[in-house]
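In this section we walk through a basic example: taking a raw amino acid sequence and producing a predicted 3D structure, encoded as discrete structure tokens. The instruction is simple. Fold the sequence below.
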Amino acid sequence: ENGVLITNVESGSAGDEAGLRRGDLIKEINRQTVKDTEQYKRLVGKAKAGESLLLFVKRGSRTFYVTMTLESE
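The resulting token sequence is shown next.
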């Protein structure tokens, strides 16, 4: 199955605040299909700090959308 599997969510990170969990599968970012890690990095890399991303996530048999705001570096 295409997507990027989350292996770790750092406490207090943008992903943690968005409710992402270890084992979640990110299927889309801003309605663009995520097929692999390289594509994930490219799509996230286009966004600026403070910008929100719309993620389509699969958790077990459920799928849902969540927004995540990128942190400043």
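Looking at the output, two observations stand out. The longest strand covers residues 52-59. The longest helix spans residues 37-46. In the next section we compare this with other chains.
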